[in-house]
Design goal:
By secondary structure, the chain is an alpha+beta fold. The longest helix has 21 residues, at about 120-140. β6 and β7 (about 335) form a beta hairpin. It is built from 19 helices and ten strands. It starts with 12 loop residues before the first helix and ends with a strand. The chain is about 50% helix and about 10% strand. It has a single domain (about 15-440), classed as Cytochrome p450 (Orthogonal Bundle), CATH 1.10.630.10. Bound molecules: protoporphyrin IX containing FE. Protoporphyrin IX containing FE binds next to α6, α12 and α19.
């Protein structure tokens, strides 16, 4: 290590070990590419995020609020603990602070080697334009269609009697809706596309450290891609596939290579975000009533419901860590970061920074009055050139699901509520949330 980088603080060996045990290892065990339900349950019981949060606060105090190097299993990583550094990296050029880290490549290349997420240079520019055109357009052009499909697929999905919420059933209906919205109605029961994608995601979860089963991965990827291409060849106009056919593209774009990420993002929303948002609404009746009023109104933007969804994403982010890698020597507080320096933004820690006055309280208003959007600690969709191009679409789909459910059902906590009378837990297991459901029209 040269003189120039020595000015950036380094964690001691013990601190690096503690960070690995409290943050990196739990993240890895929970599943970076697809959540492992049993591990998610265990980590929620141990409330590992609370321990990680306390530890990062201690580091911030000890190192004067500066970002610092920590050692991990793959070498040294610059942990971004300063708000200014987070802003600088995310808002900076993606050709300097690249999204395509080695770890991301290992995790995501088994099923989306040609995706925007893993692209660089001109190819990245091309695919970014394509993704923005399809996903940005879809949030508006398909809004009514999204509502219609969700209403159809979720009609009576939780039964006609009072009962505990059957999450598996709900996810089944939601996944069918996702296939219709992404690939068209003909894909509704094409479970093979999702099952091969999921098998490949599980392989990616090892981040290249587990058993290498290249032959199996290749076979699964071929089967998944063939399924996707079949639907893209005859695209239904009222789906992402239809919008993709009309979007600007070149020989570099690889539309079929973008679809796995769209499916991953949308199924992730259904399996890990909708449940916590419903539980928050069940624990905050006044917000639930406002959200239901929007759900029952015809037309309208559902701003409050969307704010509830965003707030749920702040509290328990879908993407808990943003990695970046520096591609060229880059000035850094009077020192230089060499090319190849790995950076890590612990989103789940920052989103609950105690400097946010409402850190552990459900506060949808912060998304309505602009506080959340203006705060660089709050980055559930990332920011700058890597900002999620599907955030609007995710909001439209998420609010359509919540609206379809709130029109039909009342939800009640079965056990301690996620309510306003105590700080919300830092770690949550979306797979074993206990809610009771009562149909509104018997
Ligand atoms: C509503 C829930 C969603 C959340 C919280 C979310 C979050 C994120 C985040 C944090 C990133 C940046 C990753 C990084 O910087 O390393 C990202 C990227 C991305 N997301 Fe989303 N996302 C959501 C929904 C969606 C949906 C519905 C789609 C598409 C159907 C989508 C497509 C993408 C794509 C293509 C990228 C890659 C962007 C790039 O590399 O430039 N996302 N998302």
């Amino acid at each position: 290590m040269g003189r120039q980088t020595s000015e950036t603080p380094r964690a001691t060996g013990l601190e690096s070990l503690a960070f690995a045990l409290l943050y990196s290892l739990p993240e890895f065990a929970r599943g970076i590419v697809v959540p492992r339900p049993s591990m998610t349950r265990l980590l929620a019981r141990l409330d590992t995020q609370a321990a990680a949060q306390r530890f990062c606060l201690r580091l911030r105090v000890r190192y004067g609020g500066r970002s610092l190097y920590v050692r991990g299993p793959r070498g040294k990583v610059l942990l971004l603990l300063s708000q200014g550094d987070v802003e600088r990296v995310l808002a900076g050029s993606d050709s300097v602070f690249s999204l395509r880290t080695e770890e991301k490549w290992h995790g995501f290349s088994p099923f989306q080697p040609d995706s925007l997420l893993l692209s660089q240079g001109e190819q990245r520019g091309d695919r970014r334009r394509f993704n923005e055109a399809v996903l940005g357009g879809a949030a508006h052009v398909l809004a009514r269609r999204i509502d219609q499909v969700m209403t159809e697929e979720l009609d009576g999905i939780l039964g006609r009697r009072q009962a505990p919420v059957d999450w598996e059933r709900l996810r089944g209906g939601y996944d069918r809706a996702t296939l219709r919205l992404v690939l068209g109605d003909a894909a509704r029961d094409d479970v093979q596309v999702l099952s091969t994608l999921n098998a490949l995601r599980h392989q990616g979860n090892w981040l290249g450290l587990g058993p290498r089963r290249r032959g199996r991965a290749r076979r699964l990827r071929l089967a998944m891609t063939a399924g996707i291409e079949r639907h893209l060849e005859a695209p239904a106009g009222d789906s992402l596939a239809g919008l993709a056919a009309a979007a600007p593209q070149s020989a570099r774009t690889c539309p079929a290579g973008q679809v796995p990420h769209w499916l991953l993002a949308l199924t992730g929303l259904g399996s890990t975000v909708i449940g916590p948002t419903l539980a928050l609404l069940a624990g905050h009746p006044e917000h639930c009533e406002r959200a239901r009023a929007e759900a029952c109104a015809t037309g309208g933007e559902r701003r409050h419901l969307r704010a509830c969804l965003h707030e749920s994403l702040r509290l328990w982010p879908l993407v808990a860590t943003l990695p970046r890698v520096v591609t060229e020597p880059t000035g850094w507080h009077g020192a230089t970061l060499p090319a190849g320096t790995d950076l890590m933004i612990p989103v789940a820690v920052h989103n609950r920074n105690p400097q946010i006055g409402y850190a552990d309280a459900f506060t949808p208003q912060a998304w309505l009055d602009g506080r959340a959007a203006a705060d660089w600690w709050i980055i559930p969709f990332s920011a700058g050139p890597g900002r999620c191009p599907g955030s609007d679409l995710g909001g439209t789909v998420g609010t359509a699901v919540l609206a379809a459910l709130l029109r039909q059902y009342d939800f009640f906590p079965d056990g301690p509520a996620l309510g306003p009378d105590r700080p919300l837990p830092k770690t949550l297991d979306p797979f074993s949330l206990r809610l009771n459901v009562v149909p509104r029209i018997l």
